[in-house]
Specification:
The complex is a heterodimer.
Chain A (H helix, E strand, L loop, with lengths): L12 E10 L2 E11 L4 E6 L5 H8 L7 E6 L8 H7 E4 L11 H11 L6 H10 L15 H13 L5 E5 L7 H14 L6 E6 L2 H7 L2 E6 L2 E6 L1 H8 L6 H9 L2 H13 L1
Parallel strand pairs in A: 3-7, 3-8, 5-6, 6-7
Antiparallel strand pairs in A: 1-2, 1-4, 8-9
Chain B lengths: L2 H21 L12 H43 L6 H34 L3 H4 L5 H14 L2 H18 L3 H34 L6 H14 L1 H11 L1 H14 L1 H9 L3 H9 L11 H30 L20 H15 L1 H24 L3 H21 L1 H9 L2 H4 L6 H27 L6 H33 L11 H5 L1 H18 L3 H23 L8
Helix pairs in contact in B: 1-2, 1-5, 2-3, 2-6, 3-7, 3-9, 3-12, 5-13, 6-7, 7-12, 7-13, 8-15, 9-15, 10-11, 12-13, 14-15, 14-19, 15-16, 15-19, 16-19, 16-20, 16-22, 17-20, 19-20, 20-22, 20-23, 22-23
Classes of the chains: A alpha/beta, B mainly alpha.
């Protein structure tokens, strides 16, 4: 069942004609989308499609060249403290303070967020993601997957109303991916919390997301539930992968390349 | 693989290490500036900055050699001593070799750690390159990171000695001493880098004991600096003491001259000055130098393979602990302070800069204590000690922001205000200043003529130190928010980081200058100083700390 928005509530996230550019290079152009309360929204696209740039704009880490971003109705650049209070963020690259241990890093995060009453929750997350034995190791010595888990835990501890995840399944082992999927589904179950996440793994997006936005070279090519996207591409039995390729790729060119590779 | 190919490959490694030392912090950083032209120029800019850094160290070497030439030529006129000319000249040359040893050691150590963390040599593992070639390529790349200072010492110190003693032979005889000093210092750099990589950078946390052990290791890092400061500050006392030993304890003196690098200093001096009756013969000196050279030869063999081995170190944290997941939550400003101290406790370069003002305060305080000058003179030395602490705390202020750079992309996603961040960084700088003052105070308490006035002087200066810290951190933070440059990296030599120190120093020094201008009597001078110091803190604080809810 897809979540709906009541008329009086403010959507957790609204992007209107968002434009992000680096000098002459336009990374995101005219991107408009809405993440509703209780919804998992997946932003899918190839490498360099503009997913990370859009997410950084959502977090107020990049100032858009045009359009607007509203997190619970507020501008994340001007109302940075508010936005960061109500969101949790896992970046694409797990840059952490390498010289700290997970315990020290989480103490820093929880102190800055002035959190209380989270100890039991932390124990649950740490146990589920199997990082309880890594709490006192230097982060520089941890595997990429463990670093990613530490980031996920730090983003979840304050139970944000909007969780923003940039490629959250990168480097995770299959067990942790499964746990993460279940965890994210449970996270929005009460209908009060929402998730925006980017991925290029179609299977994950298909299984998790209530709605999906297909981003290609900075532009939104399609958006909706799986059914809505199937109608859009006129392929009733299509998987999300088929839909993605249909919306973003020249199928004939792709087939020619595959033929040549087979012949080689 | 021929030598040309080894050099070419080592150049690739060198470019990668320099790039990572300067720009690694940028990768994946949310501060991505978007200036593609600058991004493309990155490797060239990185090499230019490393070259600037190498030339700075080379200039420092040159100044040391210039000072030594002056001491060799005119030292006896300024500092009358009973020490024989041969021993005097030999001691001066040896002291410079000790300083050179410490400088190469500390420089090598600072270069070796980024060399390890860059993992640049891993590229060689997937290429059809023999182990021997890989070792040579790694060694050449490592050597290139500080070739200019090493070559400067090899060329200019012999020249300085030769000119000062008017003897080409004496100058030439210094060369083996410089070579031995450089090789042994390099070996020690690589050994200690291995030790720090394993025991400090990757050390596990979780207990006060492990924190204390890490800080103890980090104090070891300051030894070369301590040696340099002590040998420069106490050079006159050392020569006076050796003069006394020559008269009263000749065996003790000869034992000192048997220690590295004294045989090399004595050997060089013996070509320009007559031998001392009853002193060690040239044969003994040469024999001792040869013994040390044998150690050098063994070290060379080890050094050739060490950079490759070092770059393959896998840092593993201690054994698994199951200490639970309970966290200790503090106020945000305290959390930042704790985080910075924890980062410093695993990052020798940052810890060194935290410890440097304390170290300098210790040496100056010790000088005052041991020298037992007249109370009024001791008071001035104590004031000088505090002034140096002010200068160092302010000079390294931007570096305290550097601890923020790597994880700042994440810090910026937390509800943290600019005011909290600036206040916590400032409190760290103020803490360093107060600790340095405490060290001086303990050492000079029994020597100065008016201890309360000294304490008042140091306390009154505190607001000015705080104002300077506000200014430096405030400017750097604004800059970081606007441009996204990973400022204040220790190796980046970022222009803004350097530039911001100048107004910072002006602010912190202004009350000290006003105190000097008003001179005695103490109280009115201190009142003027207090007024200026407090005004600066109020004005700068008012500007920098405006707006409670401005995010970082």
């Amino acid at each position: 069942m897809s979540p709906t928005t009541s008329p009086e509530s403010i959507d957790p996230l609204q992007l209107r004609s968002l434009r992000v550019a680096y000098g002459e290079v336009v990374a995101v152009d005219q991107l408009s989308l809405t993440v509703r309360e209780g919804e998992i929204y997946g932003l899918i696209g190839s490498n360099g499609a503009g997913k990370t740039s859009a997410i950084k704009a959502v977090m107020g880490l990049l100032v858009p060249r045009g359009g607007e971003v509203r997190v619970f109705g507020k501008d994340p650049v001007k109302e940075g403290i508010y936005t960061r209070t109500v969101t949790g963020y896992v970046p694409e690259v797990s840059i952490l303070y390498d010289a700290l241990t997970p315990r020290e890093y989480l103490e820093f995060v929880t102190s800055v967020r002035r959190l209380g009453g989270f100890q039991e929750r932390l124990m649950d997350f740490a146990t589920a993601l199997q990082i309880e034995g890594e709490m006192d190791r230097a982060i520089s010595t941890l595997s990429n997957g463990t670093r990613q888990k530490v980031l996920v835990v730090s983003a979840l501890l304050h139970q944000p109303r909007l969780l923003v995840l940039d490629e959250p399944f990168n480097s995770l082992d299959p067990r942790s991916v499964r746990i993460m999927k279940d965890l994210l589904l449970a996270y929005v179950r009460n209908g009060k919390r929402s998730i925006l996440f980017s991925t290029h793994t179609m299977e994950v997006a298909e299984r998790l997301c209530h709605r999906v936005g297909v981003l290609d070279r900075g532009t939104l090519r399609g958006e909706g539930t799986l059914e809505e996207l199937r109608s859009q591409v006129k392929l009733p039995q299509a998987t999300l992968e088929d839909i993605f390729l249909e919306l973003t790729t020249d199928r004939e060119q792709l087939n020619r390349i595959v033929d040549r590779l087979e012949a080689a | 693989m021929d030598w040309r190919e080894r050099l070419r490959l080592s150049n690739c490694l060198y470019r990668e290490v320099t790039f990572q030392a300067i720009y690694a912090l940028k990768s994946g950083n949310v501060f991505f500036s978007g200036d593609r032209k600058r991004e493309q120029e990155g490797p060239a800019v990185a090499q230019r900055r490393v070259l600037q850094s190498k030339l700075t160290v080379a200039v420092l070497f040159m100044l040391t050699f210039l000072a030594s030439a002056f001491a060799l030529r005119y030292g006896r006129e300024f500092f009358p001593t009973t020490l024989s000319t041969l021993y005097f000249d030999g001691t001066i040359i040896s002291l410079v070799l000790v300083v050179l040893f410490s400088l190469v050691w500390i420089t090598g150590l600072q270069v070796a750690l980024p060399f390890v963390s860059s993992q640049a040599t891993t590229a060689l593992l997937v290429l059809p390159v023999t182990e021997e070639d890989a070792a040579w390529v790694s060694f050449l790349a490592f050597l290139r990171l500080f070739d200019a200072p090493l070559l400067t010492a090899l060329i200019f110190f012999p020249m300085a000695v030769g000119l000062a003693l008017s003897s080409v032979l004496a100058g030439a005889a210094v060369l083996p001493g410089v070579l031995a000093t450089e090789v042994l210092a390099l070996a020690l750099s690589l050994l200690t880098a291995k030790f720090f990589s394993r025991s400090v950078s990757g050390a596990s946390g979780g207990s006060l004991r492990s924190l204390a052990v890490r800080w103890l290791y980090l104090v070891l890092w300051t030894i070369p600096s301590l040696v340099i400061t002590i040998f420069i500050t106490f050079s006159v006392q050392i020569i006076t003491a050796l003069g006394d030993w020559e008269l009263n304890a000749p065996l003790a003196l000869q034992a000192v001259f048997a220690l590295f690098p004294f045989p090399f200093g004595l050997l060089a001096a013996s070509f320009a000055t007559p031998p001392v009756v009853g002193g060690p013969s040239n044969t003994v000196t040469i024999a001792l130098a040869l013994v040390y050279f044998a150690v050098v030869a063994v070290s060379v063999r080890w050094i050739l393979r060490a950079p490759l081995a070092l770059s393959r170190i896998t840092i593993v944290s201690g054994a698994r602990r199951l200490a639970g997941t309970r966290l200790i939550v503090t106020r945000p400003s305290m959390a930042i302070l704790k985080k910075d101290l924890r980062i410093a406790s695993r990052t020798p370069a940052y810890a060194f800069l935290l410890l440097l003002p304390l170290l300098d305060a210790f040496v100056l305080g010790l000088f005052t204590y041991l020298g037992s000058p007249a109370p009024i003179l001791a008071q001035r030395y104590a004031f000088a000690g505090v002034t140096v602490a002010v200068l160092l705390a302010t000079f390294f202020g931007p570096v305290f922001f550097a601890t923020e750079v790597i994880g700042f992309s994440l810090t910026r996603t937390l509800p943290l205000s600019q005011r909290t961040l600036i206040l916590s960084k400032t409190s760290l700088i103020a803490l360093v200043y107060l600790m340095a003052f405490g060290v001086v105070a303990v050492l000079v308490a029994s020597r100065v003529n008016d201890f309360p006035a000294f304490v008042l002087f140091a306390v009154i200066e505190l607001p000015a130190v705080i104002a300077a810290a506000f200014l430096e951190i405030g400017v750097l933070l604004e800059r970081a928010k606007r441009t996204g440059v990973p400022i204040a990296s220790l190796y980046s030599g970022a222009w803004w980081t350097t530039l911001v120190v100048v107004p910072g120093l002006v602010v912190s020094v202004a009350p000290l200058v006003s105190y000097t201008y008003f001179t005695l009597p103490y109280l009115p001078a201190l009142v003027w100083m207090a007024l200026l110091s407090l005004s600066l803190a109020a004005v700068v604080g008012g500007i920098v700390l405006r707006g409670k809810n401005i995010p970082v």
